[in-house]
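Anyone opening a protein record will find just a pair of labelled lines. A complete record is shown below as an example.
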Amino acid sequence: MPEITQSMHQLAEPLWQESFNHPFIKELAAGNLPTDTFRYYLKQDRYYLQNFGDLHKQIADHISSPKIKEFLYAGAEGLHDDEADVRKTFFRELAITPAEIEATPIAPNAYSYVSHMYHELHEGSPARAAAALLPCYWLYNEIGKKLIKNGSPVKIYQQFIDTYDSDGFTDATNEMIQIVNELGASATPDEQRGMKTAFVRSSWFELHFWGMAYEHQQWA
């Protein structure tokens, strides 16, 4: 019987292909993504990652497996790699201040994405919530591996690519894939369907996160 993440990947493949080919990603790799668009992305991603970390802890609180708990609690603390430190470097280099962050409203897609993940935990299950987290690992890792071949001529964009092709992030991605497979193996058929739906919906939000940043999405 194929592992559940294989089915998830197949279901989300069209959305992922759109992410790979999105103008945000294409221009980042080419080095001509406007700096103000990348700044917009970083400010919204900071809000997302804060909640992404909190969700790791909340999911872990509902999981009995010590090994899975350990991974998720580590994710809550540091996302398993140097992502947080790299983000601090980006904020410093682009002069994104705490005051600017405080004054930046949460964009519609970022708000909806985070709400979706909390919904999967509180109205669904820990397994569904874990599946909802997985695209943020897996899609970014695949993007990093695709872009690393040619890189980007802009230093800060190259650092972004390096983060998601790193050994640490790849190891964390593979571990998260195995966690979702383990949770899926003990799930009922209804639960498995819910996990797949959560994964595909997160993949949809990932695609539209690029669009949100590219268009500088506003509420009105």
Notes: The mean pLDDT is 94. Residues 108 and 220 are 10 Å apart (CA to CA).
